[in-house]
Amino acid sequence: MAAHDDWSEAGNSILAPELLAKVRDILECEPVILEHRLYAGGSAPLRFIFDEYEDFVRHLELRARPGDHLLFWGYSGLCRDDNIAVDAKYPDATGRTPRGGSY
């Protein structure tokens, strides 16, 4: 931990019961997208989608380190049919894709 980063007990800790409850509440309604930024820029941000609270908690236990920055978004607020960036299908061996499909 770098002294110049002004560590404080007043910051938002993801282990605070009210923040964990907020994540749990969102997950009861929709998946969450997590961007996990590693403290001191150890690598590019990690990105995950969680459907289950227990999977999210397991991620914290196994991957989170002091100072990591965790950002959350509700999946359905961002991933909608009206803002798709690329819409494509995987072709068969001859390069054909179905016009329809049961999705």
TrEMBL record:
It comes from the Bacteria. This is Uncharacterized protein. It comes from Bradyrhizobium stylosanthis. The lineage of its organism: Bacteria, Pseudomonadati, Pseudomonadota, Alphaproteobacteria, Hyphomicrobiales.
